[in-house]
Amino acid sequence: KGRENKKGRRKERTKKEKAINCQLPRWFSQTSPTVDSLLFWPKAVVELRRGARCNDPGTDLVTGGQEVSFSEGEGPDSVQAAEFGHLPDNLTVLEGESVILRCKIDEEVTHKAWLNRSNILFAGTDKWSLDPRVSLVNSNDSDFSIQIERVAVADEGPYTCSFQALNQPRIAHVYLIVQVPAKIVNISQDKSVNEGDDVNLFCLAVGRPEPTITWKDFKYGRMYEGEFLDITDIKRHQAEEFECITNNGVAPPDTRRVKVTVNYPPAITDVKNMPAQLGKTAILRCEAMAVPTASFEWYRDDRRPVENDNTLKIKNEKTRSLLLFTNVTEKHFGNYTCFASNRLGASNASMLLFRPGAVYSVGAPLSPCVSGLGLWLGLSVSILMKV
Fold it and tell me: SUPFAM superfamilies per the record (predicted)?
């Protein structure tokens, strides 16, 4: 009989402990189950931390990888479920900054905790979080605040301050929004293309919120929306710098530039016949636009290359070539041909150095032109042989 009484008392004690460990208020199952509800039931928290498991029928709660079932029981069911479901306040912070989450308390508090989703950060002054960036700032009768240093994007989400005041559970929600300034992470390299080619530029950027991307051409000030800028059949006048601008309103826009170079064969633009006095100085000019820069050669009307001597010099500059006569003599009068070339092609034009008042035939070349098929072929062969 004694053994039966002892066994009965043990069974009754086990049943009582189980009831204590597993009872939660009826309002618990009507709200989103979170670990903060356990804070008002210290025994259940202790048992949860020890890995206890209650198998009575009721609401399941999955927290920290452990599944615990609680049966309905007596509790402070006067709190409305709506109290736990109001919209949270938003708190915005830049990535890398620090933020303080404040919980104002104006009533007598017996238990309090900070949670991030279902993870307990602080239970009173006890730190549960393993993150060294999270610290307790204040824990007094009016303020229960925590700080997160060097905020990362992963910290974004809901935070809950849960406390029990006057035997009533209270919670305050805040939703942490982490913003990241717009930043260009990949962009086209500078491009060198031939006239008539198609050009495709791209610019990729990241940020929170999602940034916008705009292309701007500096020559005409035009704007193009989107990550990609496509130019078909590009012309020489479209060679310029294009700027990618990305912005999400968090910080000043991030900008990068891409230079587009358009290659084309030489085009001679400035040729002029020149009168000259015997014994004086004279200059013949030949200007050619080209990318890459053109190289220049001069020829006499009998296709002889012009060479430097004590009375004549050739001076080549970036876009033009000068034929300088330091002392004009009879042998200098006549027709001269300027030949400009680069790897894409060649162009030539003829001009006269003449004595003032001299009469020349109408066929004499007085403007830029190709100086005859024979000269053109001869000069072309000469260039090819040099290449």
Answer: Immunoglobulin
